[in-house]
Automatic annotation (TrEMBL):
<dbReference type="GO" id="GO:0009055">
    <property type="term" value="F:electron transfer activity"/>
</dbReference>
<feature type="binding site">
    <location>
        <position position="207"/>
    </location>
    <ligand>
        <name>FAD</name>
    </ligand>
</feature>
<dbReference type="InterPro" id="IPR014730">
    <property type="entry name" value="ETF_a/b_N"/>
</dbReference>
<feature type="binding site">
    <location>
        <begin position="232"/>
        <end position="233"/>
    </location>
    <ligand>
        <name>FAD</name>
    </ligand>
</feature>
<dbReference type="InterPro" id="IPR029035">
    <property type="entry name" value="DHS-like_NAD/FAD-binding_dom"/>
</dbReference>
<keyword id="KW-0274">FAD</keyword>
<feature type="binding site">
    <location>
        <position position="284"/>
    </location>
    <ligand>
        <name>FAD</name>
    </ligand>
</feature>
<dbReference type="GO" id="GO:0033539">
    <property type="term" value="P:fatty acid beta-oxidation using acyl-CoA dehydrogenase"/>
</dbReference>
<comment type="similarity">
    <text>Belongs to the ETF alpha-subunit/FixB family.</text>
</comment>
<dbReference type="GO" id="GO:0050660">
    <property type="term" value="F:flavin adenine dinucleotide binding"/>
</dbReference>
<feature type="binding site">
    <location>
        <begin position="246"/>
        <end position="250"/>
    </location>
    <ligand>
        <name>FAD</name>
    </ligand>
</feature>
<feature type="domain" description="Electron transfer flavoprotein alpha/beta-subunit N-terminal">
    <location>
        <begin position="4"/>
        <end position="191"/>
    </location>
</feature>
<dbReference type="Pfam" id="PF01012">
    <property type="entry name" value="ETF"/>
</dbReference>
<feature type="binding site">
    <location>
        <begin position="263"/>
        <end position="270"/>
    </location>
    <ligand>
        <name>FAD</name>
    </ligand>
</feature>
<dbReference type="Pfam" id="PF00766">
    <property type="entry name" value="ETF_alpha"/>
</dbReference>
<dbReference type="InterPro" id="IPR014729">
    <property type="entry name" value="Rossmann-like_a/b/a_fold"/>
</dbReference>
<dbReference type="InterPro" id="IPR033947">
    <property type="entry name" value="ETF_alpha_N"/>
</dbReference>
Length: 321
């Protein structure tokens, strides 16, 4: 029987959703394979048990205070220990900031290939991923060797959670040698409790927001929709918001169910980071703005009049619904 390791990510004591989507991806590759969840960190054992509710067969933890904060050398040492112990046929994890950083290092150490940023899986071993900043897609087939992939959040469905499934995580003893990297402080720059890369709804602002104060109307709309606020590089460069919110070719790549672009011109660098959103709504006073060419719905008008009205209407819908 084949075996797949699914590397989960725990943030603030809870799994990131993409960890469960990675379980779904592993089962799409080989439904009959044994699926083993792997969780690294400090004090993660209790959270790790949740992995069972998404259909994994076993859960392994490497619980060490040296793994409290992510460092590439710490995770590499821990994961190589798990991989050597389990000898898997495949490894799957999210294409997150950690996934993008650690997987090339692991693939190099293992002498294997890596298919990154996968958005769909066909026939088990055929992976679809965007290229040329999302302008085209390529199909990659793995014919031999380790199946090593990262998946883009919000693209591959996670298995249905079944709270009746349970189990106890197995501890793996990994020797984490002294780390050259020391994390002294983690500064979180975000205006929302919803992770931007995993949000199902994103309200993004551009230079049309005019100033930092005006971004508050986007915060209000995002809060009503239980979404996250994003921004274009232009808005970040103008210091309307923090660069942690930047979406685009040099920022985060997102694929929410609903993307509301407010005061955004539709520059190609920004579009590269959000064009695969399922539904795009554009609000701009310029009817010739490029953003309308990719939008499913467009509203031409003053955003400072339209956005507050949308917020009020959504509030009514939430209350009545």
């Amino acid at each position: 029987m084949a075996k797949f390791l699914v590397i989960g990510e725990v943030k603030d004591g809870a799994f990131r959703n993409v960890s469960f989507e990675a379980v779904g991806a592993a089962k799409m590759i080989d439904e009959s394979a044994e699926t083993v969840g792997v969780v690294l960190g400090s004090g993660v054992t209790d959270a790790a048990d949740t992995f069972y509710q998404y259909g994994v067969d076993r859960v392994l933890t490497v619980d060490d205070e040296k793994l409290e904060n992510y460092t590439p050398e710490g995770w590499t040492q821990a994961l190589l220990t798990v991989i050597e112990q389990e000898n898997p046929d495949g490894i799957v994890m999210g294409h997150t900031s950690i996934g993008r950083d650690i997987t090339p290092k692991l693939a190099s150490r293992l002498g294997s290939g890596l298919v990154s940023d996968v958005v769909a899986i066909e026939g088990g071993a055929t992976f679809i991923r965007p290229i040329y900043s999302g302008k085209a897609f390529e199909k990659v087939e793995i014919e031999d060797g380790l199946t090593f992939v990262t998946i883009r959040p919000n693209n591959i469905p996670a298995p249905e959670q079944d709270s009746s499934l349970n189990g106890s995580a197995e501890a793996v003893q990994a020797e984490i040698k002294d780390l050259d990297t020391v994390i002294k402080e983690v500064v979180k720059n975000t205006t929302s409790g919803v992770d931007l890369s995993e949000a199902s709804v994103i309200v993004a602002g551009g230079r049309g927001m005019k100033n930092e104060e005006n971004f508050k109307i986007l915060d209000e709309l995002a809060e009503v929709l239980n979404g996250a606020v994003g921004a274009s590089r232009g808005a970040c460069d103008a210091e309307y918001c923090d660069y942690a919110l930047q979406i685009g070719q040099t920022g985060k790549v997102v694929t929410p169910d609903l993307y509301i672009a407010v005061g955004l011109s539709g520059a190609i660098q920004h579009v590269a980071g959000m064009s695969n959103s399922k539904i795009i709504v554009a609000i701009n006073k310029d009817p010739e703005a490029d953003i309308f060419s990719i939008a499913d719905y467009g509203i031409v008008g003053d955003l400072f009049d339209i956005v507050p009205k949308l917020t009020e209407e959504f509030k009514k819908a939430v209350v009545s619904g």
